[in-house]
Design brief:
With about 300 residues, this protein is α/β, with parallel strands linked by helices. The protein has helices spanning about 10-25, 35-45, 50-55, 70-75, 100-110, 125-130, 140-155, 165-195, 200-205, 215-225, 235-250, 255-270, 280-290; strands at about 5-10, 30, 45-50, 60-65, 90-95, 115, 120, 135, 155-160. The model has no long low-confidence stretch (mean pLDDT about 95).
């Protein structure tokens, strides 16, 4: 029988990953602060607990997927956190929190718990469609024990290093590029639309030409042209990731000229009350400024 593992954080992304693990026969011990979400997972067959500590009392390997650095610190090191569990040996951090994962890893190491840094990319739809990518960094025995589970929800698992923090850096690199792709593609197609070009034709041309990128291939056709604006991540999440990337680049002396401007674009979306909206709604702010009502 497959060994039971733990999962903390059953929101949009964490919930999708946890469901995938359950679907593939993985017994789960779970915790989420939302009782309604927890009840849904109990119905799906997961063992629901009242705290991260209780999960860590049952599972040797515990995953976490949370929206903020403070939430990750509390779950890992708080008074009812993973650090106080009696069975846990490995903490796997799927959240995007930058080098805060190093402080968490140090705190857990004092309790004899190893950390695997393993953020994910692709969004909720990628989990459902089995196209999710996972970036992992951790010691050899830690990675070896966790990778069979990573492969149950990740299409591609990349070993990017052996120290916690290295996978976080890779994720921030990825998300800086992704955020820039969206900003550039969205404002360019708004320009084209206002000039009279057909949006679908623009996307088709871009995807057959040198302007092709993740925004033109996925986000524009799937969530903008369809009118659903439901790609699966909030504006505040991508803004948080861009800010983390800019801050950490500055700490090691790397000027992010483009990244800094991209940060301003997403800050504007935040200032318009769009923090909780899907990040593809960025194009709505751009078309409003342009006086274009195509999207």
């Amino acid at each position: 029988m497959t060994e039971a593992i733990g999962f903390i954080g059953l929101g949009s992304m964490g919930g999708a990953i946890a469901r995938k693990l359950l679907e593939r026969g993985t017994p789960l011990h779970v915790f989420d602060i939302d009782a309604e979400i927890s009840a849904k997972f109990r119905h799906l067959g997961a063992h629901v607990h009242a705290s991260p500590r209780e999960v860590a009392d049952q599972a040797v390997l515990v995953f976490s997927c949370l929206p903020t650095v403070s939430a990750c610190r509390q779950v890992a090191l708080g008074s009812e956190g993973i650090a106080h569990g009696t069975q846990v040996k490995i903490y796997a951090e799927c959240s995007t929190i930058g080098h805060a994962v190093c402080d968490i890893a140090d705190g857990l190491a004092e309790r004899g718990i190893a950390t695997l840094d393993c953020p994910v990319s692709g969004g909720v739809k990628a989990v459902r469609m089995d196209t999710l990518s996972v970036m992992a960094a951790g010691a050899d025995p830690v990675y070896a024990q966790a990778v069979p589970y990573l492969e149950r929800f990740g299409k591609k698992v990349f070993r990017v290093g052996r120290q916690p923090g290295q996978a976080q850096t890779m994720k921030l690199v990825n998300n800086l590029v992704s955020a820039a792709n969206m900003a550039a593609a969205f404002e360019a197609v708004v320009f084209g639309a206002k000039a009279g070009l057909d949006p679908q034709v623009m996307v088709d041309v871009l995807n057959a030409s040198s302007g092709r990128n993740s925004a033109t291939q996925d986000k524009l056709p799937d969530a903008v042209l369809s009118g659903t604006y439901d790609f699966g991540a909030k504006v505040e999440v991508i803004y948080k990731d861009v800010c983390l990337g800019i801050d950490e680049a500055q700490q090691i002396g790397v000027p992010l000229w483009v990244g800094s401007h991209i940060g301003q674009v997403w800050r504007y979306a935040m200032s318009q009350g769009g923090a909780q909206d899907d990040f593809t709604t960025l194009i709505k702010h751009m078309q409003k400024l342009a006086g274009c009502d195509v999207f």
